[in-house]
Specification:
This protein is mainly β. Helix content is 0%, strand content 29%.
Length: 122
């Protein structure tokens, strides 16, 4: 993140600009080929036409044209291809561990809508 970008998942072939980037600057070892506004995607490697674009470790679309490393990735070169791919949305979600103690407290509603909090039992 020191270079103004973030890659959200190790499998991603795009990184996200955390600030505006000018052509010729470098981010994550990649030379940026043109201006990229904050919040937009930058290709971290060459992406062939039709190749899947990966963000969050998930397929977010396919390259409409070849996208060289360092290029701005947006609606002009990113689209949806055939829906025969398994997008595996949520495939890496895992249940959270249960807390050792209950974080839920009991409350009592009293007259005039005043709520008395009762601490949780040990």
């Amino acid at each position: 993140m020191a270079d103004g970008t973030i890659r959200l998942h190790p499998a991603d072939n795009v990184m996200i600009a955390l600030q505006d980037h000018a052509a010729g600057t470098r981010a994550d070892g990649v030379a940026i080929t043109g201006p990229v506004p904050r919040g937009h995607k930058i290709a971290v490697s060459d992406i062939a036409e039709g190749q899947e674009v990966i963000r969050y470790g998930q397929i977010i679309g396919q390259a409409l044209t070849a996208i060289p490393a360092g290029s701005h990735v947006h609606s002009h070169n990113l689209g949806m291809g055939p829906h025969s791919s398994d997008y595996a949305i949520g495939s890496e979600s895992r249940p959270l561990p249960r807390p050792a103690t209950s974080a839920i407290s009991r409350s009592t509603v009293r007259a005039r809508s005043i709520v008395a909090r009762v601490p949780p039992s040990p």
